[in-house]
Design goal:
Blueprint: E1 2-8, E2 14-21, E3 24-32, E4 37-42, H1 53-56, E5 63-68, E6 74-79
Length: 85
Amino acid sequence: MVFIKFFLVDDTSVYVDSFSTINILQQVSLQKADGEQLTWLSKNAVTKNHPLKAYQANWVKPTISSFSLDDDSELYYRLYKPYNI
């Protein structure tokens, strides 16, 4: 699952792009209208000094699914299983 948000400035020459996935922290950049990246606003890379670095190797990709209820509504969920199962 990928989460992408973008916000255009008034003249639409540039936009702010916000990107994340289940196991990638939010990254925010300034882009030209044609998609060329101008700069990072928040790269948020997990480097050796990042607080999450010690835990990254054990990150677990969740199961994402849904099920139907009696009233035909759909309930979506994200299930994180323990790493060592």
